[in-house]
Design goal:
Elements lengths: L1 E2 L8 E2 L4 H4 L2 E6 L5 H11 L3 E10 L3 H17 L3 E6 L2 E6 L2 H10 L1
Parallel strand pairs: 3-4
Antiparallel strand pairs: 1-2, 4-6, 5-6
């Protein structure tokens, strides 16, 4: 996990401190677009989210889309309790929860 964008030399990596701020209800992932990085990002964050959390993924279409979706697919194979809905270039990843599933359906 990275807090605050900007100059890559000044970005604080907080992956090891993610527990301090958990649980998260909303996570936006716009990271490295290769399959393994997407899978690693999701594998990290899934341990620190609330039961009704929503993970929003960027770049699920266009040039990066196939690689990002491959990472998401790999994550979903190992975590069948999650579902994904895609709208344009955004993906909405959530656990099979009535509350969040209803919200996502209303959105798109």
């Amino acid at each position: 996990m990275i807090a605050l964008g900007g100059n890559p030399e000044n970005i604080a990596v907080i992956g090891e401190r993610a527990r301090e701020f958990a649980p998260y209800d909303l996570v936006f992932v716009d990271g490295d677009h290769c399959e393994e990085s997407v899978y690693a990002d999701l594998s990290l964050v899934c341990h620190y989210i609330s039961a009704d959390a929503l993970i929003i993924l960027h770049d699920l279409s266009g040039d990066w889309g196939i690689h990002v979706f491959s990472g998401v697919s790999k994550f979903l194979q190992e975590h069948p309790e999650f579902s994904v809905r895609i709208h344009e270039n955004l993906g909405f990843l959530f656990r099979h929860s009535h509350h969040i599933a209803t919200l996502v359906r209303k959105m798109y």
